[in-house]
Amino acid sequence: MGSGTELADAHPSQQWTGERLDAAAAVLALLADRTRLALMERLGRGEADVTTLTEATGAPRPSVSQHLAKLRLAGLVTTRKEGRRVVYALRHGHLRRLVDEALNVADHQLGALPPHD
């Protein structure tokens, strides 16, 4: 057995592997819903209010509001007030890139495109 400092001296990604995997799995689970994925894709193109997001997804407004609440509670989207409107945005660019890459994988599967790096 080690001196106990090995964990403290380990790279943060090694220390938090379980926590990182849990957090990543939680994000991916949230994105595994078609409506939430569509919301995130639209927000990846810029801020939007509920009306815009409802039009973009084609989902009923109450459903969009519920999905946005889940995304906000999970810390994936932020909100700000603009008069009476609430405007939503992605919390950070990693989420946009994650959604973009997931959709790129779908494009390759649906279009039978060759794999690449």
What's a concise summary of this model?
This protein has 117 residues and is mostly helical. The protein has seven helices and three strands; from the N terminus they run ααααβααββα. Strands 1-3-2 form a three-stranded antiparallel β-sheet.
Structure explained in plain terms:
This protein has 117 residues and is mainly alpha-helical. It is 63% helix and 12% strand. The protein is built from 7 helices and 3 strands, in the order ααααβααββα. It has a 3-stranded antiparallel sheet. A hairpin with a 2-residue loop joins strand 2 and strand 3 (85-90). The longest helix has 19 residues, at 93-111. It is globular, with a radius of gyration of 18 Å.
Features:
117 residues, mainly alpha, three-stranded antiparallel sheet, 63% helix, disordered N terminus
